[in-house]
Design brief:
The chain contains 3 helices and no strands. It is mainly α. The chain has one domain. The radius of gyration is 18 Å and the shape is elongated.
Length: 70
């Protein structure tokens, strides 16, 4: 392990969660749940970054391009 908090340090402490509730668009509930789980052992949540699933949007854009080509 490196002595400073670099990319490898952060990568080793990052989790990926799939399937969040649509009501939790800001990630506050997820952060609360994670803090409740890791808090007793001295852990903390540094940040929650939500990335939307763009698969459906990409499918729509591909269909639009196909229609434009007709």
């Amino acid at each position: 392990m490196s002595k400073n908090k670099d990319h490898e340090w952060l990568k080793g402490r990052t989790i990926h969660v799939k399937g969040l509730s649509p009501e939790d668009r800001t990630g506050n509930y997820l952060k609360t749940v994670l803090e409740r789980v890791i808090g007793p052992s001295g852990g903390e949540v540094l940040a929650v970054h939500l990335v939307p699933d763009f698969a459906l949007q990409l499918d729509y854009e591909a269909k639009i391009m196909d229609l434009k080509d007709l």
